[in-house]
Amino acid sequence: MEDETPRGARDASAEAAVGQEQKLSEAFVSLADSLVADYDVADLLHRLADHCVTLLDIAAAGLMLADQRGNLQVVAASSETSRLLELFQLQHDQGPCLDCYRGGTAVSVPDVQQAADRWPVFAAETQAAGYHSVHALPMRLRDDVIGTLNLFGTRPGRLPDADARIGQALADVATIAILQERAIRHHEMLAEQLQHALTSRIVIEQAKGVLAERGNLDMAQAFDRLRRHARNTNTRLTDLARGIVDGTVDSTTVVTPQPRHQPPDPPPSPRAPAT
Question: What is the pLDDT of residues 190-202, one digit of tens each?
Answer without folding.
Answer: 787 778 777 888 8
